[in-house]
Amino acid sequence: MPIEKIAIVVIFLLALILLQLVIKYRGKVVQASFPKASNINVNARLNLSKTERADLISVGSQSFMVIFTKGNSPSIVELTSDNQLSLESVSE
Fold first, then answer.
1. Among 9, 35, 38, 61, which is most buried by a count of CB atoms within 10 Å?
2. Model-level pTM?
3. Residue 17 located in a structural domain
4. Which residue range(s) make up the domain with 74?
5. Are 46 and 85 in contact (CB under 8 A)?
6. What is the per-residue pLDDT across 44-64, written as a single tens digit (0 to 9) for each?
7. 18: helix, coil or strand?
C-alpha cells in the first residue's frame, strides 16, 4: 500500500481525535456556565398506570404537578395555595 494512503488515514484519525477533544472540552465549559439546580426537589411520585405518572415537584417556594403520559408531552400545572396538596395527605 502506498505511503500516501497510510498518511491520509493517520491524518483523518488524528482529526477525529482532535474533534472529540474539542467537543469534550466545550461541553464542560457549557455545563460550568449553568447555575446549580440545588433547589429542585421531587416530593412525590404516583404511578397512575403503566404508561402514566404524576410527579409533585417543588422549585424554591413554588410547587408544580407534572403529569407524564406515553406519546405526549408532559403537562405542567402550578399548584397555588388554593389547589396545593399538602405533603402529609400525599404520604398517607
1. 9
2. 0.49
3. yes
4. 40-86
5. no
6. 999 999 999 999 999 888 889
7. helix
Residue 43 backbone phi and psi in degrees, to 5? -85, -35
Pairing of strands 52-59, 75-79: unpaired
Q: Which amino acid is at 85?
A: L
What is the DSSP-derived secondary structure letter of residue 82?
Answer: T
pLDDT score at 62: 86
Task: Quote the strand ranges of the chain, DSSP E.
Answer: 40-47, 52-59, 62-69, 75-79
Residue the block writes with cell 494512503? 5
Statement to judge: residues 56 and 80 lie in one domain: yes
Question: Residue 37: what pLDDT?
Answer: 64
* Backbone phi and psi for residue 67, each to the nearest 5 degrees, phi listed first: -110, 120
| Structural domain contains residue 65 | yes
Q: How far is CA 8 from CA 18, 19, 65, in A?
A: 15, 16, 56
The answer to whether residue 70 sits within a structural domain is yes
91 is a domain residue: no
Q: Tell me, yes or no, whether 55 and 24 share the same domain.
A: no
Identify the residue whose cell numbers are 466545550: 26
